[in-house]
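Worked Example 4.2. Consider the chain below.
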Amino acid sequence: MERMTAFVHGNVQGVGFRWWTRSRALELGLSGHATNLVDGRVQVVAEGTFTECEKLLKLLKEQPSITRRPGSVDLVVEQWAAAKGESGFVER
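Applying the procedure from the previous section yields the following structure tokens:
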């Protein structure tokens, strides 16, 4: 099991981005959270198989016209680590 942390830069707060991310993560069977940060970014933490985490990461980076993702993403910075045992997926 892997833990993927993505820092999403762009217009991603107040537009339904965390809700959309939670929905996609649950469809992929991932656990974790999507959190608004004070600097305007959203931090996405997802745990599951590497393949499923990578699928979510790809969705975060894709153009909104392809995924119907709300907001606009300028940059996604990712980090990988061993899973810590998250359960469920919540918006913070």
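The chain is about 30% helix and 40% strand. The helical segments are 17-27, 50-61, 64-67. Compare this with Example 4.1 before moving on.
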